[in-house]
Write a structure and sequence with these properties.
The chain is an alpha/beta fold. The protein contains 12 helices and 15 strands. Strands 1, 2, 3, 4, 5, 6, 7, 13 and 14 form a 9-stranded mixed β-sheet that branches. Strands 9-10-8-11 form a 4-stranded mixed β-sheet.
């Protein structure tokens, strides 16, 4: 799920996790093509490189990745080199580097984790604790496992709107003209999710596209970055935008006007679906053993207990049941929302044609 050119959100950063903190790194030269022959084979280097969709690391240094990577480094002495972009962007980068693999672990959203597997980027590894992850949230062959669960959602401005909209149909009202925006399907991960949810709620591709064609009259226009829409909504530049629960819940701590809601088809129930952060061990990774250790650590009870408290997300392990204030609030938020499971194999196979049909219907 990508951004411009192929990213989930637009930002691309490389950082290094060191004991107790995260500091900027100058790139990936220490863990790839410029290293010695021994280093390029992972000859004892205390490094692991992660390519990840954004949302789990905080610019303030207090996100889930920040805490977990620092704890991992403190425990193992292994530094985490971190590269952030969109799900699709990370997959495309890894594809380009197949002859000189740089990443050890890749973390993306569906359907791009399936795409990574289909492109031969992943090797089988079942991390410790993965037996506690639901079958739908991991690959049966061990190619990938969810490390943080998350759900698709929308946001609204609580100051301008006395209550959240309830249905897709409400968004066709004239009061939303120029005040509604969703990120671009096929470019943005959460934008692709808009199309997936509409197809589910309206009962197929054609009725979904018919609705989105009508909605285009109110849509501000394309956005390659979902994360930029929440600040606009909080400020009142937008009344409604798309997003995802984990990202928006974390943002709402510093954006007091931001509310989360889930659209329903008129006469139906609000729905959503899981958009987990799924991690896989990269095939021919330069530091395979370190990658395995990091995956084990991310699925460990210590890290999983921090998912809601620190990250505003949902633990991937079903046996970890946090009771912190965020966990209580998230449970309340999801109450009454019907969760469906998309056919990710179909979406992975037909994503390009679905996006082309959306472009045609909306004139995008």
């Amino acid at each position: 799920m990508a951004r411009n050119p192929h990213g989930r959100r637009s930002l691309l950063r490389a950082t290094t996790a060191v004991t107790g903190s995260l500091a900027l790194a100058g790139g990936l030269t220490a863990c790839g093509g410029s290293g010695t022959a021994a280093e390029s084979k992972g000859g004892g280097e205390k490094i692991v490189t992660v390519y990840s969709a954004d949302g789990l690391k905080s610019e303030k240094g207090d996100g889930w990745y920040d805490k977990v990577f620092a704890a991992f480094t403190k425990k193992t002495g292994i530094e985490v080199k971190y590269v952030e972009g969109g799900s699709g962007e990370m997959v495309q980068r890894a594809v380009r580097e197949k002859t000189n693999t740089q990443a050890d672990v890749i973390v993306t959203l569906p359907p791009f984790i399936q795409q990574a597997d289909g492109k031969g980027l992943l090797q089988a590894y079942k991390p410790q604790g993965s037996e506690k992850v639901n079958g739908a949230d991991k690959a049966a062959d061990g190619k990938w496992t969810s490390v943080v669960n998350n759900y698709f959602g929308f946001v609204y401005n609580k100051k301008e709107l006395t209550e959240a909209p309830k249905t897709w149909e409400e968004l066709l009202d004239g009061k939303y003209k120029g005040k509604l925006q969703y990120s671009t399907p096929g470019v943005a991960g959460d934008g692709t999710a808009v199309l997936v949810k509409a197809m589910h709620d309206f009962g197929g591709k054609e009725p979904a596209l018919e609705y989105l064609k009508k909605l285009q009259a109110n849509n501000v226009g394309p956005s390659s970055s979902t994360s930029k829409l929440a600040p606009k909504t909080d400020k009142g530049e937008l009344l409604v935008a798309n997003g995802d629960v984990q990202m928006n819940f974390a943002q709402s701590k510093s954006m007091p006007n931001l509310g989360i809601w889930f659209p329903a088809k008129d006469g139906g129930k609000p729905t959503t679906f899981a958009l987990p952060y799924a991690a896989g061990l990269v095939d021919k990774a330069p530091h395979t053993e370190n990658g395995k250790k990091l995956l084990d650590f991310m699925l460990g009870e210590e890290a999983q207990k921090l998912v809601s408290e620190v990250g505003g997300g949902f633990p991937a392990r079903t046996d970890v049941k946090p009771t912190d204030a965020n966990a209580v609030e998230l449970t309340k938020l999801m109450t009454g929302v019907e969760i469906f499971e998309p056919d990710w194999a179909d979406i992975d196979k037909n994503l390009a044609s679905y996006v082309d049909a959306w472009k045609s219907a909306t004139g995008s």
